[in-house]
Design a protein that fits this description.
Blueprint (H helix, E strand, L loop, with lengths): L3 E5 L5 H5 L14 H10 L4 E8 L2 E10 L6 H4 E8 L8 H15 L4 E6 L7 H6 L3 E5 L5 E6 L1
Parallel strand pairs: 4-5
Antiparallel strand pairs: 1-2, 2-3, 3-4, 5-7, 6-7
Amino acid sequence: MPTLRLEPLSAANIVAANALTLKKGQEAYATPVSYSTAEHTVNPAAAWPRVVLDGDEVVGFIKGNLDPDEPREEFRCCLWSINVKASAQGRGVGRFAVQALADEARSRGFERLTAIWERGEGGPEEFFLRLGFSPVGETQYGEVLGATHL
């Protein structure tokens, strides 16, 4: 089991986070990490962008939104994005990152974590289902809205 830790997304690690190489086909489901920097400036108290490190190597990225005042319930406590380096997949990196987001959400009083994903070959649906998310709806764009109880 790797020794994993989280750090906030910063100027010191954003290049490594943007350079994460995913498995073939997964790029279609990934949002560039640098978008999270722009989103973070809109509501920095709610944004939760973190890199996952194994030692000194950036092996993953997760972005959550934790905003009790968000008018759309599905976005109040939401996992916006997760990327795990291809060579680190299957080693618990994604599970570690989602658990860390869930722990942070729970500490802020949230009881449900949502995630949005697209179905498709190479997509993240199996990952989310294994972590306990269940489909609870669909976005206006046809993406799956999933949720798990904290």
